[in-house]
Automatic annotation (TrEMBL):
GO terms for biological process: regulation of DNA-templated transcription. It comes from Clostridium frigidicarnis. GO terms for molecular function: ATP binding; sequence-specific DNA binding. This is PAS domain S-box-containing protein. Residues 274-503 form the Sigma-54 factor interaction domain. It holds the Pfam family CBS.
Amino acid sequence: MNLSELLYKVKDIMNTKFIKVKENDTVEDVSNLIINNNSDEVIIVDESEKLKGIFTRNDLAKITSKHGSMKDGIDKYMIKNPIVISPEESARHARDIMIKNNIGRIPVVKDKKVIGVVTSNNLRDTFYLKIDEMFDLQNNILDNIHEAVCICDPKGIIIYWNKSSEKLYKLKAKDVVGNKLEKYFDDAKILTALKDGKTIENIRHEPIKGKSVILSAVPIYNSNNKLVAVVSTDRDITEVVALSKKLQSANAQVEFLSKAYSREIANNYKFQHIIGNSKKIIESIALCQKVASTTASVLITGESGTGKEVFAKAIHEASGRKGQFVAVNCSAIPEHLLESELFGYVEGAFTGAIKKGKIGMFEFADNGTLFLDEIGDMPIGMQSKLLRVLQDGIIYRLGSEKGINTNTRIIAATNKDLRKAIKDKEFRDDLFYRLAVVQVELPPLRERKDDIKDLINYFVKQVSKGEGIIVSGVDQNIYDILCNYKWEGNIRELRNVVQRMVVLSNNGYVSKNSIPGYILNCNDLKDFNKSDNNEEVDEFDLEERVKQLEYNTIKEVMSLTRGNKVKAAEMLKIKRSTLYYKLKQYGIMDTCQ
């Protein structure tokens, strides 16, 4: 739909002062009305004002030539069922109907009643006379848009140049209109669109030095598919380009600040998933946070299952390094394969090698972290090769003499005493000092009893989510028992035990019965479960008998209330402060609660 169709509708150009007669009026009456009003037509309606037909001055001449009676009713000679149009239709549509049907007028009907008439005279005198007004409006629109607009004819001569073009290129319309565009621009894309007859959309262009624009050029065709013009729009992005260059020049500083920010965030948040509030574990976390963003090698020591890999991953995540975290268990890979796993190999390096070769873990962890677990089990011959890589950062694939530079951060871990291994000639002292630039020693779980309850709760949530089991509650006695067990397998063993208890829970309630028997029967728990064992008590020692009864009663109520001290105090009919004292006295509430 073009602008004229949007602006001018039938209601804007119709004649509302038309002559209206009834269908039973005579030809003579109608003739007098036409002559006296100098009208070309009358509209015939019925008693309810509905359109019945049209009678024109030409129809009157036909009656006279045929010697029809002037006393006849007008309905005998009117044009019945004439074409009508809505007042909301475009004036152009009315014109098209009249041309197509070779008629000179159309009644305008609304709600089945005639409200006006559109004639060829209306179109000529009203619609076409408003074309100038329409073009003025279009020019005002084009002059007030932000983009520079240029229109050229098929010969490349400028026929329109809006105010934004004047502002952008410092050329007045009065100076350029009528001249060829190439006179002002050596590389005008509008001429390319004109030549190729194809649209150019949103390309970055520099029509003149120092002016950057986003340009589109569209060829315009008439109804006969003949090229009649081409229109271009240029959006000025000179300031944007200048700003982009400034930003690029400051890129190094931005990157530096970004890394610094990332490291600060990492130091504060990347260790939050490590559970523990005991002094030793907090000291270990603080040390790892401090060295995470550096390039220093880290050696993590501790018994098996103390969480060495968890700490290694946390250090990597907090380091801000963009590469991957890659873990290698040095004790799990045969000696003759370890070198190829770490450094990779080329085609034909050995029998059975992959045809295209293979990259090693050092390359895979480039710009990241390589975690060498169980480093104490690395063969002595392999240790010297690892030392060389740590010294210069260059690795050689097996079967190749071409060095490859890597930027890999090393974190090693072991449960062995490496200093003893050095004395026994099982570990190189120079490699030890390279790996242990920073040494982190993780305490065994038996030295972290303050953390066991938090670890239990953490693993209960983790396992229940993984297994799809909704845990409704946990028997409080579980904390007492597990806190007093010697965890030779450390955190790894604790997690496995918690997984067993969650899986064996009844209706989501984790009870004491789900604890493995070897823990319940452990000698370390005998002293704690005095009342549950057959330790002999003097049957006449009233004080001890009362203590034993009180201990058993309190423990049973705490179990029934699932550790809810408020409910337990109510059931025991004692003050809550008294309950707290008794719990502490009998060791029912110890450091793990």
